Amino acid sequence: MIAILADHGVGGTFLNWSIYYLAGHSEYYSAAEQRLILVVDSPLTDKNAHIFLPNMPNTVAEFDGILYNLLSHQSSHNTIYFHMFSDQKKFPTGTADSIRKLLPHVSKTLLLTLDPKHLLYQCSFYRRGDSIRPSLMDPSINLTNNHEIHVDFINYCFVSSIKVWGESNLEHVWDSREFLALNFRPFTKSQTMVDCMDLSHDHYAINAIELWDRFDETVGDLFKYLELEINVDNFLKWKTVYNAWKIKHKNRVLFVWYFDMIIDYIINGYNLDLTKFNLDLYQEAAIQHTLIYKHNLNLKTWQLEKFTNTRQLHELLETNIHPLSNY
User: Fold this and answer.
1) Which of 84, 59, 82, 56 is nearest to 69 (CA)?
2) What is the pLDDT of residues 157-202, one digit of tens each?
3) Does residue 46 share a domain with residue 168?
4) Same domain, 7 and 72
5) Which is nearest to 290 in space by CA: 264, 252, 272?
6) Model's pTM, two decimal places?
7) Which residue among 248, 267, 284 closes a domain?
8) φ, ψ (nearest 5 deg) of residue 204
9) How far apart are CA 79 and CA 29, in angstroms?
10) Closest by Cα among 230, 233, 207 to 220
């Protein structure tokens, strides 16, 4: 059995599908359905690779059930994939305990991680995961779109700061952007799979940037570790799917790579077109956050709906006047 331990939202499902498809398997065992199901020719949706349904537990209880079913169905082709469990707050050591329970039963372990210097990849208003998510304010309610999730996030995480802002309802994009810039922490590292695993255990480490950017060049190294052969015909088809999947990450990856340059260009008044990054609200807020907290600068953004150019933003620079201890 192959274990795929991945940080959240960095491509673990695509990696799981790729192993089956490149190895030439036409079907795989589903622990949830307790039967063999087809390996799809392409797992891609409009934002991720979730047409493929991996053996993926989301909670401690689901892990126990899936592991039991996989061990009951003896096969060298079984895989299990998961990231930090959704009930981590209720069971703080649940993910780590499950990894310890799992490792004696697997032959190969893959660890897919996001390097801390690439944390801004996760800074996006648009989720790459499934659209439905339990509310932070009331877990019995499912949220179904990015706006609902955003409002829920604000109300749950920044209650005291909302009071500081008084009667503001943040109805304008420039209000919401500045509120986020003052309150959220885009560079704060959350617990990851690296924190939950004994790294002395034999494993194959994959940096998420490698998976997003040049996996077609390095996948052969992975298959050597897995002791599997790549099906040549499937590789040619897979590469087309992979190139389409890479596009879904492009703007996020470019934002990570160019972020320091964007800040430098804003401060110095250099010219850089920001429209090529297709910045969303959270990414713009990360830029404003860095100006405020690292450089004691802010932007006169009243009625500014979109960041389009670094020179445009340079002309709007002013000294920050917010008492940061309030946020």
Assistant:
1) 56
2) 565 566 555 555 556 888 889 988 988 889 988 788 999 999 999 9
3) no
4) yes
5) 264
6) 0.84
7) 248
8) -110, 115
9) 9
10) 230
